[in-house]
Specification:
By secondary structure, the protein is mainly α. It has helices spanning 20-23, 32-44, 67-79, 83-94, 121-140, and strands at residues 46-47, 50-51, 65-66, 106-107, 114-115. The strands form 2 sheets. The chain has a 3-stranded antiparallel β-sheet with strand order 3-4-5. A two-stranded antiparallel sheet has the order 1-2. The longest helix is centred in the C-terminal third of the chain and has 20 residues, at 121-140. The chain is globular and about 40 Å long.
Length: 143
């Protein structure tokens, strides 16, 4: 049994969207189970700074990295007291924007090609959330 939040009450499969609960105040981001969830997502669904939402989609074909989830990880790291990791993750993600700083819905993990909608509003909202969290935590730490 995982010691983290998962996609469903009776399941074991990770869903990176589980970070939305703590990000919206459901649980303290410094809580042990939330931190375990964050670590599991980074370990099992992560590819560097990029994060897939699920291990596989319903058809078993896998998917690219879901950019909103990747930015949620950066925000959770910042709000969970792991500012250096948040900044490192955010810098890597910001570098992935296209020539005018826009992001798609997903990024192909092998080719780096944008997949899905471009521009993707949810990706940009998640970017703003991560940037805000990093700025707030940096100020709180006197940086």
């Amino acid at each position: 049994m995982k010691r983290s939040y998962v996609g469903s009450a009776d399941g074991e499969e990770l869903d990176a969207a589980a970070l939305l609960g703590p990000l919206q105040g459901y649980a303290d981001l410094r809580d042990e189970r939330v931190q375990a969830t964050l670590d599991a997502i980074r370990s099992e669904l992560g590819h560097g700074a990029l994060v897939r939402r699920y291990a596989e989609d319903e058809l078993g074909s896998g998917e690219g990295a879901f950019l909103a989830c990747s930015f949620w990880v950066a925000e959770a790291l910042a709000r969970g007291g792991r500012l250096d990791q948040a900044i490192e993750t955010m810098e890597a993600l910001v570098d992935l924007g296209n020539d005018v700083g826009l992001y798609s819905e997903q990024i192909d993990l092998e080719t780096g090609a944008f997949l899905g909608n471009l521009p993707q509003g949810l990706s940009h909202l998640a970017l703003i959330g991560a940037a805000t969290a990093i700025a707030e935590q940096s100020r709180a730490n006197g940086q």
